[in-house]
């Protein structure tokens, strides 16, 4: 077995003909090795004796590699001529005087760079070592054997990168603080991050920045080319000119004119584009084509027709292609180009029934068609069969940050990996394989989502597939890499849970659009669930922080503590705001206590941000500056912190009695009070009810609970309440043989008595069916009774996924089942109390149609009846993007489709079929017609089902 050791005798080769960027990366890797081993690797001089040598180079640019190949020690044909591939080989006696060597041979510049960084990763160095100061674990006697030998495959996606966008006030202030601006020094740090994450492609910051001017000059562009970073520009910045350049250069006496209009200023705009192409022609670029209005707006006015826009864009494309032939290469196939079908440009590509779009236009031959998501992480149109073979291929512009409609989210990374997995693996299957670029805003706090996005693009076979659980494996691996040197396994496992908990909260609702009305303070315990999760995150993260050494605090705060605690505290703040408002509406004196707790959260928000921005001598200063509380518009304008509600207690003792999940209460007073009947325990799996004794006065009250019913048990039967006391009422259902009714009273001694009737049923239920209670049946999609596959497809469970943790989806994802006579299906069995009409609601992931203006369909049948097909798009004759439905679904992270069905008394079946691509079912809800369920965001908890191996149903 060959072995190379990383000791104080280790050396690196260097060659003058090597790419300068490769040598720079080798220097970074040498520093990585020092962090791990404590030894500085030396520089090898040919002919000297060396025990352990690192030989690196690019095929056909390295004398060392040629010598090894000529001597039969290395097969470079395995990498020669391929895209970003490297050979990583541990061998013995590679040359005279050298005992052992690790040979890294790249097919090209980036292949060599990835091979060098692969060495760092094998030794436990995180790609975030210099970005988040993740310090690797010190190791002794470090070595690698030939068991690590590998020749890599080409990356799954050709161009993989990110977009620095919406960069003020956060990223911009960070760059000003540390580099004096968004300049070449700043970009060198970003290029390193991109390459360590196996990316190769970048859209630079552009709000108030000019990549090819602020370096200073072309220094940033030159440096990118040196490192092998492929530069491009965003969706509205054609011909390698940033959006702000024209603002700086325009004017009455400017060569470029003073109007960003191809209609009114054709010559000036053409000259502007030509000069941009000439300026950047010597670098590796993907050139953006097309034209939009200034600052991400429409190019023509609202009164312009679709035909007007398409004709203008066609003229623009012809002009730009002619300029590229003139300035770069007459053979356009040799020049990587893209057009981004973002916002209104998508419609210009497809056209409509009356107006032919740009689809199939010869000016787009060989141009990558960059598709986009719906601004919140769900892809819009995907390649149809008629354009699947488009020369130039397809790309995807994806958002993990947004400054725009339907709402902005810029503060803390809010990416839930299963959403990225489901959407981007589907895009890949549809043929989106040429370019993936993700808008990461300020980069800071987006590290987890960005890492996964780029790893998925680099190796989709490893991190994609059809099982959402791969995202859990990814989080496990990612957490081990970042925190493995900081904490023992028990601590790292807590970190993994914290990551899932806080990102799951954000999958339900993002920071900026939280408010006191989102989660109901009582119904179905949803607010309690969010509050409990938030408190657990805050508690566990604080406990872990106490165990972190000073050298690791930078990485811990930036990668875990700040994003998780910032999220948890904000969620807690809004839950308390809702609770405070509700308590005040009933004059509960507890409202004042909750108001104080709310104030603590508001102050904690600032403290958490300050800790992030001051750790590591202020290394992250600037990254926490984005507004993130109480958006009432699409952006931060007029945003608002919670209102604190205070109450004055009644003059005399006042008792309120209420179930913990119900807003209706009793006072026990003579004239206005009404007895209540509690039916919760008619549900087979419910054997206890929690209720509260609440004070509406600053004066306490004494209470006494009385009952003549022997099977009603109370956690406490008397006491004194000054704020609130929770009582648990329980029943041993095993003692019951039939339905029963019990009563009890709660006496506010000296003031009044509340009367309650309790309905109870024994734990009897039909086997294998969800049972109706309180007029509804709720079923998680994953809990189907049976599934039926066909030769063309099947359903698979996605877990983790969505608002409630799981979903189902038909595979293969590219197949449209709507026209198939036999479709894959799943069957749900449920039991209703009575025959009648029910409102059936499907909770779906808020995906968008994969085709333009053709709708998105689901299919179902009830009790063996005819298959019903429903368009999930409410207004199919209108554009889905920018519609009211799009805004609602993006905000609430759910698509709800409701129909009316007839059910028979007793056993019923519901079949859900494969239909349109992109349909992901999360929950099914049936509600008896005329029943209005309590208001809630997530909906009722899942109904009871007795499984085959259950002998009883108590819980």
Write up what this structure looks like:
The structure is a single chain. By secondary structure, this protein is an alpha/beta fold. It folds into five domains: 3-151, Chitobiase, domain 2 (2-Layer Sandwich); 159-468, TIM Barrel (Alpha-Beta Barrel), CATH 3.20.20.520; 489-618, Methane Monooxygenase Hydroxylase, Chain G, domain 1; 655-760, Immunoglobulins (Immunoglobulin-like, Sandwich), CATH 2.60.40; 770-945, Jelly Rolls. The chain has 19 helices and 38 strands. It has an eight-stranded parallel sheet with strand order 11-10-9-16-15-14-13-12. Strands 26, 28, 31, 33, 34, 36 and 38 form a seven-stranded mixed sheet that branches. It has a six-stranded mixed sheet with strand order 3-2-4-6-5-8. Strand 5 and strand 6 form a beta hairpin. The longest helix is centred in the middle third of the chain and has 33 residues, at 553-585.
CATH class type of the largest domain: Alpha Beta
Radius of gyration: 32 Å
Largest sheet: 8 strands, parallel
Number of continuous helical runs: 19
Topology:
Blueprint: E1 3-5, E2 10-12, H1 20-37, E3 42-43, E4 50-58, H2 63-70, E5 86-92, E6 98-106, H3 109-122, E7 143-145, E8 150-151, E9 159-164, H4 170-179, H5 184-196, E10 201-203, H6 219-227, E11 230-231, H7 243-249, H8 266-280, E12 287-288, H9 306-327, E13 337-340, H10 345-350, E14 368-372, E15 394-399, H11 417-429, E16 435-441, H12 447-458, H13 460-463, H14 470-483, H15 489-508, H16 526-545, H17 553-585, H18 590-618, E17 655-659, E18 676-678, E19 688-695, E20 701-706, E21 713-714, E22 718-721, E23 724-730, E24 740-748, E25 752-760, E26 770-771, E27 776-780, E28 786-788, E29 794-798, E30 807-811, E31 825-832, E32 836-844, E33 857-862, E34 868-871, H19 884-892, E35 895-903, E36 906-913, E37 920-928, E38 944-945
Parallel strand pairs: 2-3, 2-4, 4-6, 9-10, 9-16, 10-11, 12-13, 13-14, 14-15, 15-16, 18-25, 26-31
Antiparallel strand pairs: 1-7, 5-6, 5-8, 17-19, 19-23, 20-22, 20-24, 21-23, 24-25, 26-38, 27-37, 28-31, 29-30, 30-37, 31-36, 32-35, 32-37, 33-34, 33-36
Helix pairs in contact: 1-3, 1-6, 5-6, 8-9, 11-12, 14-15, 15-16, 15-17, 16-17, 17-18
């Amino acid at each position: 077995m060959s072995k190379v050791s990383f000791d104080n005798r280790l050396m690196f080769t260097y060659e003058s003909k090597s790419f300068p960027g490769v040598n720079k990366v080798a220097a970074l890797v040498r520093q990585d090795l020092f962090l791990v081993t404590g030894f500085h690797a030396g520089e090898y001089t040919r002919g000297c004796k060396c025990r352990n040598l690192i030989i690196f180079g690019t095929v056909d640019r390295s004398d060392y590699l040629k010598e090894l190949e000529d001597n039969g020690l290395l097969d470079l044909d395995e990498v020669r001529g391929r895209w970003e591939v490297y050979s990583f080989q541990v061998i013995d006696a590679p040359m005279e005087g050298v005992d052992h060597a690790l040979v890294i041979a790249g097919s090209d510049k980036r292949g060599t760079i990835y091979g060098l960084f692969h060495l760092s990763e094998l030794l436990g160095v995180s790609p975030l070592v210099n970005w988040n100061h993740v310090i690797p674990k010190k190791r002794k006697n470090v070595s690698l054997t030939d068991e690590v030998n590998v020749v890599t495959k080409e990356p799954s996606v050709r161009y993989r990168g990110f977009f620095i966008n919406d960069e003020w006030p956060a990223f911009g202030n960070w760059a000003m603080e540390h580099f004096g601006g968004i300049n070449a020094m700043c970009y060198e740090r970003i290029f390193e991050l991109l390459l360590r994450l196996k990316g190769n492609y970048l859209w630079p910051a552009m709000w108030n920045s000019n990549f090819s001017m602020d370096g200073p000059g072309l220094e940033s562009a030159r440096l990118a080319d040196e490192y092998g970073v492929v530069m491009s520009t965003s969706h509205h910045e054609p011909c390698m000119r940033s959006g702000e350049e024209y603002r700086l250069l325009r004017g009455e006496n400017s060569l470029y004119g003073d109007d960003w209009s191809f209609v009114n200023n054709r010559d000036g705009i053409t000259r502007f584009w030509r000069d941009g192409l000439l300026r950047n022609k010597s670098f590796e670029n993907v050139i953006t084509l097309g034209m939009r209005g200034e600052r991400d707006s429409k190019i023509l006015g609202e009164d312009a027709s679709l035909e007007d826009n398409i004709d203008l864009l066609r003229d623009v494309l012809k002009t730009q292609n002619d300029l590229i032939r003139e300035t770069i290469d007459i053979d356009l196939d040799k020049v990587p180009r893209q057009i981004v079908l973002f916002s209104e440009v998508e419609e210009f590509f497809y056209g409509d029934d009356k107006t032919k779009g740009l689809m199939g236009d010869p000016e787009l031959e060989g141009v990558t068609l960059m598709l986009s998501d719906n601004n919140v992480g769900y892809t819009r149109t995907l390649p149809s069969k008629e354009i699947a073979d488009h020369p130039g291929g397809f790309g995807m512009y994806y958002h993990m940050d947004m400054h725009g409609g339907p709402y902005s989210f810029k503060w803390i990374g809010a990416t839930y990996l299963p959403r990225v997995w489901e959407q981007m693996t589907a895009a890949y299957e549809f043929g989106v394989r040429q370019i993936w670029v993700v808008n990461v805003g300020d980069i800071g706090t987006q590290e987890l989502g960005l890492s996964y996005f780029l790893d998925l693009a680099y190796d989709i076979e490893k991190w994609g597939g059809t099982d959402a659980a791969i995202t859990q494996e990814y989080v496990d691996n990612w957490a081990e890499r970042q925190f493995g040197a900081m904490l023992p396994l028990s601590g790292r496992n807590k970190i993994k849970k914290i990551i899932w908990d806080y990102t799951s909260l954000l999958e339900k609702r993002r920071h900026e659009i939280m408010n006191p009305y989102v989660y109901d303070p009582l119904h179905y315990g949803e607010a309690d669930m969010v509050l409990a999760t938030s408190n657990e995150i805050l508690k566990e993260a604080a406990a872990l922080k106490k165990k972190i050494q000073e050298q690791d605090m930078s990485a811990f705060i930036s990668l875990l503590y700040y994003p998780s605690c910032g999220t948890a505290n904000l969620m807690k703040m809004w839950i308390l705001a809702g609770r405070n408002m509700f308590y005040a509406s009933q004059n509960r004196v507890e409202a004042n206590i909750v108001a104080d707790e709310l104030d603590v959260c508001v102050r904690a928000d600032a403290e958490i941000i300050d800790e992030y921005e001051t750790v590591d001598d202020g290394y992250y200063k600037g990254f926490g500056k984005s507004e993130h509380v109480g958006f009432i518009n699409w952006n931060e304008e007029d945003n608002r912190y919670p209102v604190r509600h205070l109450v004055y207690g009644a003059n005399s003792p006042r008792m309120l009695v209420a179930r913990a999940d119900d807003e209706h209460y009793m006072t026990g007073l003579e004239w206005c009070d009404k007895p209540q009947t509690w039916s919760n325990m008619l549900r087979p799996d419910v054997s206890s009810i929690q209720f509260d004794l609440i004070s509406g006065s600053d004066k306490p009250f004494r209470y006494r609970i009385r009952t003549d019913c022997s099977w009603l048990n109370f956690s406490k039967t008397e006491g004194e309440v000054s704020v609130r006391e929770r009582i648990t009422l329980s029943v041993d259902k095993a003692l019951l043989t039939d339905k029963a009714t019990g009563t009890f009273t709660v006496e506010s001694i000296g003031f009044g008595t509340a009367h309650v009737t309790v309905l109870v049923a024994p734990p009897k239920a039909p086997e294998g069916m969800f049972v109706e209670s309180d007029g509804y049946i709720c079923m998680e999609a994953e809990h189907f009774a049976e599934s039926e596959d066909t030769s063309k497809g099947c359903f698979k469970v996605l877990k983790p996924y969505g608002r409630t943790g799981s979903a189902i989806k038909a595979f293969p994802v590219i197949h449209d089942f709507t026209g198939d006579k036999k479709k894959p299906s799943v069957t749900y069995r449920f039991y209703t109390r009575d025959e009648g009409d029910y409102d059936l609601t499907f909770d779906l992931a808020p995906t968008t149609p994969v085709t333009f203006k053709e709708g998105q369909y689901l299919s179902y049948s009830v009790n063996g009846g005819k298959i019903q097909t429903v368009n999930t798009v409410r207004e199919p004759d209108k554009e889905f993007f920018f519609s009211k439905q799009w805004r609602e679904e993006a905000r609430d992270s759910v698509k709800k489709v409701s129909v009316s069905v007839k059910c028979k008394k007793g056993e019923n079946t519901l079949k859900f079929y494969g239909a349109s691509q992109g349909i992901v079912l999360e929950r099914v809800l049936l509600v008896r017609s005329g029943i209005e369920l309590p208001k809630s965001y997530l909906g009722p908890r899942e109904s009871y089902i007795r499984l085959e191996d259950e002998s009883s149903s108590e819980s």
